[in-house]
Amino acid sequence: VLSGNPASRLNQKLVRETQLAVDASAGYDILSRGRLALFALDGTPSEGKTVAELKAALLDQIEKVKAAGVTVEELDRVKAGVIAADVYQRDSMFYQAMQIGTVESIGFSWKILDGYPAKLRAVTPEQVQAVAKKYLLQDNLTVATLDPQPMDPNAKPQGKPHVH
After folding, report:
1. What is the pLDDT of residue 163?
2. Long-range contacts of range 86-89, CB-CB < 8 Å, 24 or more positions apart?
3. pLDDT tens for residues 130-154?
4. Are 46 and 21 in contact (CB under 8 A)?
């Protein structure tokens, strides 16, 4: 809902409407090792916009999901895209082997893959909102800002040193 297609919230609000960002995305790896997942928001501020403005706008979109949820239409669009991509990827023997190996290496049975589309179809807007409220908390937030440095080896770095 937040990212992954032109109609996603981050693309619509931050890139197209407010032009706050050149790009913005969100995502996580459903098959991360150790059964712990990292949900990441990222973006590049547009010229004249600050990282702080972009951070605030990204977090505002999370707060909107927590407060008002997502629409059935948004969720149905995402489900259709994810299921279609999964079906398409299963045409590849390499992808199937990679998926089975990944699932088994993190402690699940490869048999869970057969139920994935049905479980995804069963997700409700209320569940999305409940998960956002439970896990997408400020106390769990880590912020990293990439500070590109000049390519000229004789040039001096600009900006402030990192403060922790």
Report:
1. 56
2. 86/116, 86/117, 87/117
3. 999 999 999 989 999 988 777 888 8
4. yes
What is the signed CA dihedral for 121, 123, 128, 129, rounded to 10 degrees?
A: 130
Integer Cα distance of 14 and 4 in angstroms: 14
Measured CA distances, 122 to 2, 16, 84, 119 (Å): 19, 31, 16, 5
Q: How many CB atoms lie within 10 A of CB 62?
A: 19
pTM, full prediction: 0.81
| Helices (runs of H) and strands (runs of E) counted in the chain | 6, 2
pLDDT at position 33: 62
pLDDT of residue 147: 83
**132-152 as b/e: b if 16+ CB within 10 A:** beeebeeeeeeeeeeeeeeee
Token pair 């048999």 is at which residue?
111
For the chain, residues with pLDDT lower than 70 are: 32-35, 157, 159-164
Structure tokens at 77: 């669009």
